[in-house]
Amino acid sequence: MINKLRSANLGLLWFYLVIIVVFSLLSPPFRTLGNLQNLLSGFSHIGIMAVGMAFPLLLGGIDLSVGAIMGLVGMVMLDIIMLLGVPGWAAVPIGLAVGALAGLINAVLIVRLGLQPFIATLATMVAYRGITYTISGRQLVPELSVLAITDAFYTSIDGALGPLPLAFLYLVVVAALTYLLLRYTRFGMDVYAVGGNETAARLAGINVDRVKVAAYTISGVCTAVSTLILTSRLTTSTEDLGFTFEMSAIAAAIIGGVSLRGGVGSTIGPALGAFLIGTIYVGLTLVGVTTYAQPVVVGVVLIGAIGYDRLMEARRARALLERRVLEAHTAVGQ
Amino acid sequence: MTTAHTIAEKISGALPLRRLLRDYGQIVILALGTIIFAALEPAFVSTENLIGILYQISLIGIMAVCSTFVVISGGIDLSVGPVVALAGLMAAFTLEATGLALAPALLAGIAIGAGVGLLNGLAVARFQLPPIVVTLAMMSIARGAALLVGGSVLHLIREPAAFLFIGSGRVVGLPIPIFIFVATAAIMWFIQTRTSFGLSVFAIGENAAAARLCGLALTRVRTLVYLISGAGAGIAGVILAAQVRTASANYGNGIELDVIAAIVLGGTSLKGGSGAIYRSVIGALLIGGMNNGLSILNVSTDLQLVAKGVIIVVAIALDNFLYRWSES
Amino acid sequence: MSDTMLLSAYGLSKHYGAHHALDGADLDLRAGEVHALVGSNGAGKSTLVKILTGAVGPDAGTLTLAGMPVPFGDPKAALDAGIACIYQEANLVPALSVLDNIVLGRHPTRRFGLLDRSAQRQAVRELLARHDLRLDLDAPVQTLPTVQQKEVEIAKALSLNARVILMDEPTAWLAHAEVEKLFHSIRQLRAQGVAVLYISHILDEIFAIADRVTVIRDGKVRLMAPIAATSKAALVEAMLGRELAVEVGTAHRQMPQSAAGAVALECHGLSKAGLFQDMALQVHQGEIVCITGLVGAKRSEFVRALFGAEPADQGEILIHGRRVSLREPAAAIRHGIGFVPEDRRRDGLFMGLPIGANLVLAYLPLVTRAGLLVRRLTRALGRRQVEDLGIVPARLDLPARALSGGNQQKVLLGRWLAGGARILILDEPTVGVDVGAKADIYQLLRRLASAGAAILIVSSDMEEVLAIADRVIVMAQGRVSRTFTGHEVTQGAILSAASGEVAQ
Questions:
Q1: Among C358, C485, C331, residue whose Cα is nearest residue C414
Q2: Which of A47, A38, A161 lies closest to A30, judged by CA?
Q3: Which residue among A127, A260, A292 sits closest to B148, beta carbon to beta carbon?
Q4: Which tens digit of pLDDT belongs to each residue from B68-97?
Q5: I need a labelling partner for C423 at 20 to 30 A (CA). Which of A84, A111, C77, C396 fits?
Q6: Do C111 and C175 reside in the same domain of the chain?
Q7: Are C225 and C282 in a shared domain?
Q8: Which phi and psi angles does A263 have, rounded to 5°?
């Protein structure tokens, strides 16, 4: 597991470095500090979302509702800060709680009702978006569309520590913490076990349901963190905040080496994947390619990533088969 | 080794009622839902309202019946949304380019959909890439392509009248899109039940390894199902452009979820190997009836979204429950 | 084997609807014994295993381990009591290491749930040493050969302090030398006082490793005896019931050997890297040729190459004397070859589709006009196969999963007969098939051969081979070891050829 992890991320890192070199050569503005800061902060929120997405994916599931959860958390933040006057420092834990709750509901649908993750999170994606529209403060109080959140604590979420954007710092912390969680704790081991072979995990006495609940809740919380950063940056929120973000999160995770089948991957990969996507976007813009081409490029990169993954897998399988055959022959020869 | 499950399966033929409910529960729900809404508001079952429901679900219905084969074959097509936009744009541009000739415009719209579907099919069938990722990526690529082609402006389509008639015209009192929906569904139904292609789709979805050993053309069938799905989105895109008289790269955003919901609500399994075109029709009716019924009862559109999510959950959970119940 | 009673199951019964899977079955295991459990498919073995492991609860009966009652229907309780099971399908997490798999679900932790790696490593190392299991603790299990994966499962069971280990068909997928390694591990277990319930249908193995044997048929225990006090014939008799065994035996010997005609299927120098080398054979019209050998001889791989399922790298295949290129099953089918695969569930049948569909899917062109399925033709085709083969229930609309193993096999055969395949390749055609259907299938094959079909059968069942083959080809390690005609073949000769002692 460790070796595979390293080689997948290594390939990604190389690709990333190549991209950076290419863009740096093609576009002078790319090489500035301002751009670097832009890169670091610009996609950190997608990165955090992708890190959270890794958990359902590692279990062999998926979370399509993260975009809608972002909208929901964002709207809750807008409402309670602007309409109810809740101070920033109190709003943040509420936001995290909403994200956790949304993830929990996903988990309950999957675990208790036995729904496939794809369908369950498809349904909640629709439902959460609906709730977002329903509670939208901007419909109640039209002026909100032009007002900005001015709460000092809240706006400082998306600040900077010297030259380092805080958003990037949050990403590093979240990615590191989740990485440690997966690699060094019992829970992490259980996640890989359930994702690798759910029946074996169950028979081994692992509480599969609890692991699933935790995974989807983590995804919800990460999305909430990501939302706090984004809404702080925008100083507002809209009804369709986060729309289609789930696709970027999934793409980042897959590019980052998390397998759709489960049991393989880490949380470093998704973060790298998000940066890759972000760098490509920014790089393309600076080089002068229209923003319209961005989705095309991301789509192609995604296909490239999955194609590469398949290729590697086929090669591994073949090597394994050949090794087995060799062993069987030598064993018989004894 | 024979498992207890297999033994139980062999015995379960003795419980026909449960099996009936499991297989046809969706129709029961449709009937029940109609009765409930009709009871709450009689206008629900007025001819005008029913026609309205059919009209509203025509687009999703067309896409659902065309994408059903993909699901039966064990795959999924998430890329249909942007294809709708692309098709509308292609139709609009072809109309301008050919001096408002109708047929080329229609063909162009459907063709672009089929083309995207073909690409999906090749990636999935020929290169063995997972459908979720492929169609996810294609969704992104198609959206970008639509933006590149059409920008983010609205392209007005004011003529020819024949084209606009497709979207808003009526024949014997029924809007044209409904006819197209019925016709498409009928064609898909025919393909499913009467062609060897249809049977092959089920076989491949049910057991691809066995299908290969039967000499079935896996690559060709798998490619075709995505082509059909794309073409369906193309048809819908052309109709949409005719209905709203504009083409835009931003149309169709999020529609793939409604399409999948319709297929799934109708009882077709995402795992593949089972399902039917009529089920997707029922699924589309369920969604349409639900949307309409809630509107008539003056439930706000926002809450309707919530209700939609809840109903999808309930319906699938019920289906799972009925399945286990009928096998016990 | 000591005299200490370890596990005692008494009067276990379980029914599903009207079907009695188990009917008052008793089983007892002593500490340090290897106890074989034998029975045909559907005899009740798997139900018994499920009850012992707590997967299901019985309707009646008692179960005690070392005198303490074991709660029914609770897998965790069964594990805690010391009953572990090693299933046919590996119960391991492929990407995780050997160590992680052994302590799966019980990883020791320090504060905050942090894994305590060193603690578990030492304990497991000691456990492995004690049982003479040599495993690389850090290797991902998916990189290990199958026999080592079984050893990981054994280690896992032992680390759970299992006193009773059930092994379900443990030598499936093992090559010959690996079987010896497994037996070594089992003997170690026995020496340590663990009771092993060895579930298998391979009688040779049972006589090699077991101390006592229990035979189940139709849910009841028919025989329980020390191995030394019984014989293969007695076991077969108990498994099949006396009259049936005699009947099947005589039916075999009475079958007419048909005269062979022209060569229908032929191959020369067929090779596939790492699998088989230089394979050459001929199957004449009217002939039944059996390919036998031990597991690991790559017989299935070879015949699959003949069908184009996984084509060979080198060599040539000739059909009726003409050289053909068979790179995919569709090509083989066009040339009139039919193939019944070994695993009918995985590669053969469409379980959820109706029998009618299953029968027709290999020859769609026959029932299609302009892309449309002609109902009349599909029904006629299906009806004929159902009648000819005696498929029960005789309904085309039932899903394939509703049939018994024997009838399912008939459907697979019917699929090829429907299209008039004249060259039939069958891989282990009677595995998991009840005795009555077995006899039917043998008679059918003989009838087909008499009518001019060329039949190639892969079989591990020595009795089957001896009974129906006109010629026997023995494969060992991917090569032809020896060829016999029907008259000169004996079980002993086959076995020595199979272990590679006599080269062609």
A1: C358
A2: A38
A3: A292
A4: 999 999 999 999 999 999 999 999 999 888
A5: C396
A6: yes
A7: no
A8: 80, -5
- Whether residue C426 lies inside any domain: the answer is yes
User: Residue B180 is encoded by which pair of tokens?
Assistant: 């197209």
Residue A319 maps to a domain: no
Question: Which residues are bridge partners to C426 per DSSP?
Answer: C340, C457
In a shared domain, residues C265 and C224: no
DSSP bridge pairs for C454: C423
Residue A258 in contact with partner chain C when CB distance is under 8 A: no
Residues of chain B by 3-state class (helix, strand, coil), percent to 5: 80, 5, 20
Q: Cβ of A328 and C79 within 8 Å?
A: no
Contact between B103 and B295 under an 8 Å Cβ cutoff? The reply is no
Per the structure block, which two tokens stand in for B166? 């497709």
Per CB-CB distance under 8 Å, the chain B contacts of A300 are: 137, 141
**Residue boundaries of the structural domains of chain B:** 46-327
Report the number of distinct structural domains present in chain A: 1
HSE-CB of C223 using CA atoms within 13 angstroms: 24
What secondary structure letter does DSSP report for C348? Answer: I
CB of B323 less than 8 A from some CB of C: no
In chain C, the largest separation of any two C-alpha atoms, in whole Å, equals 78
Q: How many domains does chain C have?
A: 2
| Residues C213 and C261 grouped into a single domain | no
Looking at the domain covering B46-327, what would its CATH class be? mainly alpha
Kindly report the three-state secondary structure assignment for every residue of C182-240: HHHHHHHHHHCCCEEEEECCCHHHHHHHCCEEEEEECCEEEEEEEHHHCCHHHHHHHHH
Residues near C335 by Cβ (< 8 Å), separated by ≥ 6? C319, C324, C326, C423
β-strands C368-369, C423-427: how paired? Answer: unpaired
- Cα gap A95→A250, rounded to integer Å: 22
Cα–Cα distances in Å, from C135 out to A215, A216, A313, C153? 32, 36, 25, 11
In a domain, A307, yes or no: no
pLDDT at C245 over 60: no
CA distance B240 to A84: 42
Residue C223, amino acid? L
Contact A296 B264 (CB under 8 A): no
ipTM, interface predicted TM-score of the complex? 0.84
Residues A245-265: pLDDT tens digits?
A: 888 899 899 888 898 888 889
On whether the CB atoms of residues B273 and B211 are closer than 8 A, the answer is no
Angstroms from B228 CA to nearest CA on chain C: 16
Decide which of C239 and C157 is more confident. C157
Instruction: Say which residues have a Cβ less than 8 Å from residue A280's Cβ, sequence separation at least 6.
Output: A19, A294, A297, A298, A301
pLDDT in tens, C84-125: 998 877 789 988 999 999 998 888 888 878 888 888 888 899
Helix (H, G, I), strand (E, B) or coil at C370: coil
How sure is the predictor about A173, in pLDDT bands with cuts at 50, 70 and 90? very high
Q: State how far the Cα of C336 lies from the Cα of C332, in Å rounded to an integer.
A: 7
- Domain limits for position C236: 5-240
- Cα(C17)–Cα(B328) distance, rounded to whole angstroms? 10
Residue B206 is nearest to which of C309, C353, C364, comparing CB atoms?
A: C353
Q: Is C79 on the interface with A (CB under 8 A)?
A: yes
End residue of a domain, out of C175, C207, C240: C240
Query: Testing the interface with B: which of A46, A140, A296 to mutate, by most B Cβ within 10 A?
Result: A296
Q: Residue C134: is it exposed, middle or buried by C-beta count within 10 angstroms (0-12/13-18/19+)?
A: exposed
Query: At C119, which CATH number?
Result: 3.40.50.300
The number of residues in chain A equals 334
- C chain contacts of residue B200, beta-carbon cutoff 8 Å: 361, 364
* Cα–Cα dist B181/B64, whole Å: 10
| Beta carbons of C93 and A197 less than 8 Å apart | yes
Give the closest-approach CA distance of A151 to chain C in angstroms.
Answer: 36
Average pLDDT over every residue of C397-425: 90
